[in-house]
Amino acid sequence: MKKLISYIFISFLLCVFSACYKLEVPITSALTPDVFPTDSTQFIAASGPAYVALRGNIGVEYFFMQTLTTDEGIFPARGGNWFNGAEFQQYHYHTWTKDHAGVNGNWVWFSTIIGTVNQSLAILGQNIPEGSSKKTTLAELRMVRAIAYYLMMDNYGNVPIDTVSGDFSAKPNVPRAQVFTFVENEIKSCLPDLSAVSGVSTYGRANKWTAYALLAKLYLNAEIYTGTQRNDDCIAACDNVIKSGLYSLEPANTYLQMFYPDNGPQMKEFIFAIPFDPAWSNTFPFRSQNLHARYDVPRGLAATKFKLPFTPDGAISTLPSFYANFDDPNDVRNRQWLTGPQFLADGVTPATVTTTKKGYDQFYTGADGAAPYTYQIDIKPEVVLRQDVNSFDAGNDEIAWNMGYRNIKFYPDATSLNRNQKNDIPLLRYSDVLLMKAEAILRGGSATMGQTALSLVNELRSQRTTSAALTAITLEGIYAERCRELVWESWHRNDMIRFGKYESKWGFKTDADVNRRIFPIPTSALQLNPALKQNPGY
């Protein structure tokens, strides 16, 4: 049953970003002494703006930044469409600058979340009795801020730390290791007040297990962030989630359903997910939408196979080097890909498109170029820049539109009339916890609870493939398993950096600059805040 919860939003008006990226939001009469929240339900409702902000860029611009900068995804232009001032070309080639639209947009998104939480805490944190259940809501809000700080640190390295609403003094960005410590301490200080319950009542809000899963993510990457490994701490955090007994792996027959439009609190693997619904409003300057079908579905299949009421851009695909990880024919995770000849929903009827010979191949030179031409859609693995290499252009014909295998993990929502899907987007899943623990063990951590790296990976694979269990596991095997399990979930850039693969060659990209592991501080932020110092290499 979809969406057993719903956010109740206070009316907020977006106002101004300060020099230290503070977001100030004038409060309407919704929060006055007469109507200030007096019970837990009202308190949760009053925290709504932070969750509206959190939805922000996660389904589009943040996904682009984490995916298109890796071998997981490529977004070429097609006949000039989607060149977007070289925005996606720069992601692929690792040539982005401090003026890149996505670099700026995601910085503003993180800053908005932080500023909104700071203000909500300042308003709602007044006169809270000791032991009050309202303290849980405040801890949940701080966890939203901790998530934003973690993602901001992961992407931008040295960032400012600010937890005080109304302080407009310019804040310098501090060393990444210091941000790491801040996030770690913030999560730990929230733990005593967070709910230990999982399910409908806490869905979409952080509980204790969200905190432990985020700590595990922090510790697994600690050597990247601070220069010191924290593998045993990662394992301990994972163990807390595992021992809770509240989460389990979805079996093979429901794995794909985790990402369907009707997903929600019933999914046993979701530790923390961000809910979406096309009916929800948004008062921030972000999409706050899940637009996966718009970018993932080949346009020739939109109306016939997926019954979509709009024509998708159908422009994002994977690269052969990434798809090579899907080498087990018995793995259910293969079914999230569209590859080769395509058929309608019955699996038998060929999916065809009628165009012209010239419409099929713009380079066709025959005299009958205007003659009708019907073909079965056949999605090819390679992306070829047939029209123009400099403008990252594959061409404006059917051949170009069917280049590159497509991922439809976030299955198209045919009920939405505005392209915004109601598929919730998971940020932390139980399978990720198992893989993090396995990796931490292989990186030198001590095995616990009778579990080994091999047993943990085989536990996951037993619910994903009918192939025989593995007899050995290496870090390379963990990396491949993470590619299969977490594809399209915005963790691949993080993984490639940790595994030392981010500077490798793939697709058309040859750049090996390690400074590209983090993004530059945007020009707009530097102009607003003179205390900021640009990241190395920019």
Automatic annotation (TrEMBL):
Localisation per UniProt entry: Cell outer membrane
GO cellular component: a single term: cell outer membrane
Entry annotated with the keyword Membrane: yes
Family, similarity comment: Belongs to the SusD family.
Gene3D superfamilies reported for this sequence: 1.25.40.390, SusD-like, Tetratricopeptide repeat domain
Domain called RagB/SusD: residue spans: 396-507
Keywords in alphabetical order: Cell outer membrane, Membrane, Signal
Database matches in Pfam families: SusD-like_3 (PF14322), SusD_RagB (PF07980)
Signal sequence range: none
Protein name from the UniProt record: RagB/SusD family nutrient uptake outer membrane protein
Residue ranges occupied by any SusD-like N-terminal domain in the UniProt entry: 86-220
Primary residence: membrane
Organism the protein comes from: Chitinophaga agri
